[in-house]
Amino acid sequence: MWERVGADGDALHRCSIAHYPADLQHAVADELRWDQRALAAVTDLDDARARGHHDSLRVRAFLPSLHLNLADACQRMARQHLAAAAEHLEALPDDGYKAMIQADITRVGAS
Fold first, then answer.
1. Domain range holding 16?
2. Which residues of 26-64 are buried (b: 16+ CB within 10 A; e: fewer)?
3. How many domains does the chain have?
4. Residue 24 in 3-state DSSP?
5. The whole model's pTM is what?
């Protein structure tokens, strides 16, 4: 469907099409790409077009969900990268640089 609508197709269709497959992805990186597409598409959408589909729709009402989905995917991806960083710590010599990286992994993981 995404290819059928195209990158320059109707913004409401692009936003809707990208929003739903994001939740079906097994890999967080793939989910993130769909969430980014949905958010990018909504920037091309205006209230007139949204109301043309249903009178109750407003573009601003799409934004909380789209931003939340994107934040969730980014947060899960960050946890994956933090785990990978911690897993590879043994490759570093036992020095100040390793201590700094280890402390930063802990700090970023706590935020």
1. 2-110
2. eebeebbbbbbbbbebbeebeeeebeeeeeeeebeebee
3. 1
4. coil
5. 0.77
